[in-house]
Design goal:
Elements lengths: L7 H20 L19 H20 L1 H11 L1 H6 L4 H27 L9 H14 L4 H17 L4 H18 L12 H16 L1
Helix pairs in contact: 2-3, 3-5, 6-7, 6-8
Length: about 210
């Protein structure tokens, strides 16, 4: 509840701090393995499960964004004061956004644990949070397709720099700086992959041809 009183960057910092508190608490809890991690997890995660869960997540989030509740969340993101002045319950929708984010993060964590046989707190440090932030900022804060593009691009870069872990964070930081300078809205901005995008491009091409 105290974090809901915060806004903007302060809210982001508070959530990162809370994540670190929970990680340290798990490190000191023997019931879930403590510092050794929770081991002996059976490997149930397959490519099929990953594909189905990812597709389901995208569909659910896309439908949510297009709903009344989703538009309320977008209005809070764009201008919280104006949204509150229009009668939107900002606290309610913040809790809703946190809950949905936590749910899908839990699904991802379960898939991760059932693939690597272990769930270790050190796998989810501040650096992992920063990495996920890079996915979203690089792809576009207002685009689901952008998040997928950003995650794919960073994963490819991470795999290419696997033998140079100390360089990886430097590359991430440089990508963010370059993106903020030349394309602050991200690769996709607020656009989504779909037939509408291709129709628009085709229409622009015809207009240029006529001109």
């Amino acid at each position: 509840m105290p974090t809901l009183r915060l806004k903007g960057d302060y809210l982001a910092i508070a959530t990162l701090g809370m994540g670190e508190i929970i990680r340290v608490m798990i490190l000191n809890t023997d019931y879930v393995g403590g510092a050794s991690g929770f081991m002996g997890i059976p490997q149930y995660t397959t490519w099929t499960w990953l594909f189905l869960m990812t597709t389901g997540t995208v569909i659910i989030i896309r439908n949510f964004i297009r709903s009344t509740h989703g538009r309320a969340c977008i209005s809070i993101r764009e201008n919280e004061i104006a949204a509150e002045a229009m009668g939107i319950n900002t606290t309610k929708y913040k809790v809703m956004a946190f809950t949905m984010g936590a749910f899908f993060a839990g699904v991802a964590g379960a898939l991760y644990a059932h693939y690597f046989y272990i769930a270790h707190p050190n796998s989810f440090t501040f650096l992992r949070s920063f990495e996920i932030l890079v996915y979203v900022v690089l792809g576009g804060l207002g685009s689901i397709s952008g998040s997928i593009v950003g995650a794919t691009l960073i994963t490819v870069i991470s795999a290419a720099l696997q033998n140079y872990p100390e360089v990886r964070m430097i590359v991430y930081s440089l990508l963010l700086v370059i993106m903020m300078l030349f394309r602050p809205q991200g690769i996709m901005g607020t656009k989504e992959f779909g037939l509408d995008l291709f129709k628009k491009k085709r229409g622009d091409g015809r207009g240029l041809a006529r001109g």
